[in-house]
Specification:
Blueprint: H1 4-17, E1 21-22, H2 47-51, E2 60-68, E3 70-71, E4 74-75, E5 89-97, H3 103-117, E6 125-130, H4 134-144, E7 151-154, E8 160-162, E9 167-178, E10 198-211, E11 217-230, H5 231-238, H6 248-261, H7 270-288, H8 297-315, H9 327-334, H10 339-343, H11 345-375, H12 385-395, H13 399-407, H14 415-434, H15 439-452
Parallel strand pairs: 1-2, 6-7
Antiparallel strand pairs: 2-5, 3-4, 5-11, 6-9, 8-9, 9-10, 10-11
The structure holds adenosine-5'-triphosphate and magnesium ion (3 copies).
Length: 469
């Protein structure tokens, strides 16, 4: 059985042997890119290379990139613990060609690596192509020997990638693995494609056009390749599992969480263990890259992730802070590949401990209030927005924590009501200040309040600039 560390190394070695320069992961906080909340794919660090603004001494690269998808355009937070394939933090393996090889070679590399080096059974694999991309379909036939039934044509934007409103773009081809008929879910493009039977493992993006003003698209003289494969999804296959959370790295954290809480890993608190394992990784890697919990921007996303995990620990009846006790297991699993984790271990431990210690009293009181309030409601009746706001304002419950807490009983939150309560509080704050004769400082104070009160980081306005591989 290959460990995740071995799989990562095999992937990078394969592309190194094929003339690619192995480039280290860039930090989770993108350098020089204020439009992006967190690095969410392998191509982020190469954006300017693809557009031609920046030159590198190589035209082929490969990387294992740390990614977080917990805000902005890509937000998988609500899937965590519930699907077999989503994390907030994951590793994306990728190979890149900057105007060097293109479609046919990219497909050939992917196919050879999957079926020869990793020896995946061919009859478990199938692919999607963009409906208009006959070329890609032809190469899949030629290289993989796929019949038409294993090449699914998709006409939606799912198979057409864009860097932003303008700039490089092109069709993509996604490789799926069929985990077998015992698992619910249909093939890509079918109505029940959202199930976990057919899991997307690798996305190949063929950057072949340059988009200018709306409707104007010209072929790039030197098309490029950008690919992304989820290490955890791939490890699941190679380790004979269906679920990412049963692979070595995550399983080790889940077992540590089970031991620390005294609750079976796959028993009543299965979801909680999974959420804790995922959120621990995300929190630890974010802290290692310089993010600290706060009430705005990236720090608030980190705080939300940490507090969500803490609620799950609390549900399991844990009295003392839990998260920081799981850090050594994570560092043992991933510190070899990511030395920054080893360097930051003391900071990660302290930050988790402090946040959990501080939040605990509020969490307990807030959950008590929540139970009281929901007891007054009929089955399926949403929680009034005003209550969700009180939890937010007085008890430090991010909105998504309240939503997560109510998910098990199938109850929603009146989000419009929550927002109205927030707006009302701001209005009152503004009115109170207006009469105080301190007009000069009011603007500043209000700015801070505005930011501190933000429930959701919405990106620095231009989310379209987010890369989507
Ligand atoms: P999905 O449709 O399953 O949500 P995606 O199309 O959003 O995946 P891409 O943006 O194409 O994913 O990212 C490239 C690869 O990264 C995917 O093929 C998958 O293997 C992996 N990946 C994407 N999102 C996640 C996630 N939240 N957790 C783990 N792996 C992921
Ligand atoms: Mg997705
Ligand atoms: Mg997809
Ligand atoms: Mg995809």
């Amino acid at each position: 059985m290959s460990s995740s560390n071995e799989i990562r190394a095999t992937f990078l070695d394969y592309f190194a042997r094929n003339g690619h320069t192995v480039v280290a992961s860039s930090p989770l906080v993108p350098r020089n890119d204020p439009t992006l909340l967190f690095t969410n794919s392998g191509m982020v660090q190469f954006k300017n290379v693809f557009t031609g603004q920046e030159k590198r001494p190589y035209v082929r690269a490969a990387s294992a990139q740390k990614c977080v998808r917990a805000g902005g355009k890509h937000n998988d937070l609500d899937n965590v613990g519930y699907t077999a394939r989503h994390h907030t933090f994951f590793e994306m393996l990728g190979n890149f060609s900057f105007g060097d090889y293109f479609k046919e070679q990219a497909i050939a590399y992917a196919w050879e690596l999957l079926t020869r080096d990793f020896a995946l059974p061919k009859d478990r694999l199938l692919v999607t192509v963009y409906a208009e991309d006959e070329e890609a379909a032809l190469y899949w036939k030629k290289i993989a020997g796929f019949p038409d039934s294993r090449i699914i044509r998709i006409a939606t934007s799912d198979n057409f990638w864009r860097m932003g409103d303008t700039g490089p773009c092109g069709p993509c081809s996604e490789i799926f693995y069929d985990h077998g008929p015992e698992i619910p879910g249909g093939p890509p493009g079918s109505p029940d494609a959202d199930g976990d039977r057919f899991i997307e493992i690798w996305n190949l993006v063929f950057m072949q056009f340059e988009e200018g003003p709306p409707g104007v698209r010209v072929p790039l003289p030197k098309p490029s390749i950008d690919t992304g494969m989820g290490l955890e999804r791939f490890a699941a296959i190679l380790q004979g599992k269906h679920d990412n959370y049963d692979t070595d790295t995550l399983r080790a954290i889940i077992l540590a969480s089970a031991e620390a809480t005294g609750h079976e890993p796959d028993g009543r608190f299965k979801v909680s263990h999974r959420v804790i394992a995922d959120h621990l990784r995300a929190a630890a890697f974010l802290i290692a890259d310089g993010v600290l919990p706060s009430n705005e921007g990236r720090g608030y996303v980190l705080r939300r992730i940490m507090r969500r995990a803490m609620r799950h620990a609390h549900m399991m009846g844990v009295e003392d802070p839990l998260m920081h006790r799981l850090v050594p297991v994570l560092v043992r699993q991933m510190g070899g590949a990511y030395p920054e984790l080893v360097r930051a271990e003391p900071l990660i431990t302290e930050t988790l401990k402090l946040e959990e210690g501080r939040f605990r009293t509020l969490l307990v009181r807030g959950l008590h209030l929540l139970a009281e309030e929901t007891a007054k409601l009929g089955a399926g009746q949403p929680l009034p927005g005003e209550v969700a706001f009180r939890l937010y304002d007085t008890y430090g419950f991010p909105l998504d924590l309240t939503q997560d807490a109510l998910r098990a009983e199938g109850r929603a939150v009146d989000v419009a009501g929550f927002e109205a309560a927030m707006a009302e509080q701001r209005r009152r704050a503004r009115a109170a200040w207006a009469g105080s004769g301190e007009a000069a400082t009011e603007g500043v104070w209000f700015d801070i309040k505005e930011k501190a009160g933000a429930t959701e980081f919405l990106g620095y306005t231009t989310e379209t600039a987010e890369a989507e591989i």
